[in-house]
């Protein structure tokens, strides 16, 4: 299990990332990147919710002052969260189709 997936599973027992509050994103960032103070402060300052986190780009991280080597690490973990979110979407669709 990857670092990003493990942390999101610990967050509220499978609460979908797109529903994370700013506080939950802050907690995830703090747990994932304790040494990335710039990103941690930016999450609070810009009120980054789960939905906004999933849309985060390299350009946005750069504008927040996150260093390039940290950007790649963060974007990789966000990509894992996006994949997890898509799998949950597919599961919802599957359940809707076969629950009747």
TrEMBL record:
Start and end residues of each SAM domain: 20-66
Xref: PANTHER family: PROTEIN AVEUGLE, STERILE ALPHA MOTIF DOMAIN CONTAINING PROTEIN 10
GO annotation (BP), single: cell surface receptor protein tyrosine kinase signaling pathway
GO cellular component assignments: cytoplasmic side of plasma membrane
Cited SMART domains: SAM
Domain of life: Eukaryota
Name of the protein this chain belongs to: SAM domain-containing protein
Residues forming coiled coils: none
Taxon lineage: Eukaryota, Metazoa, Chordata, Craniata, Vertebrata
């Amino acid at each position: 299990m990857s670092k990003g997936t493990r942390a999101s599973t610990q967050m509220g027992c499978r609460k979908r990332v797109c529903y994370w509050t700013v506080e939950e994103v802050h907690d995830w960032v703090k747990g994932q990147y304790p040494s990335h103070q710039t990103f941690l402060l930016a999450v609070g300052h810009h009120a980054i919710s789960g939905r906004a986190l999933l849309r985060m780009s390299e350009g946005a991280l750069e504008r927040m002052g996150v260093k390039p080597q940290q950007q790649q690490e963060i974007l990789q973990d966000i990509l894992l969260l996006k994949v997890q979110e898509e799998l949950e979407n597919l599961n919802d669709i599957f359940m809707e189709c076969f629950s009747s």
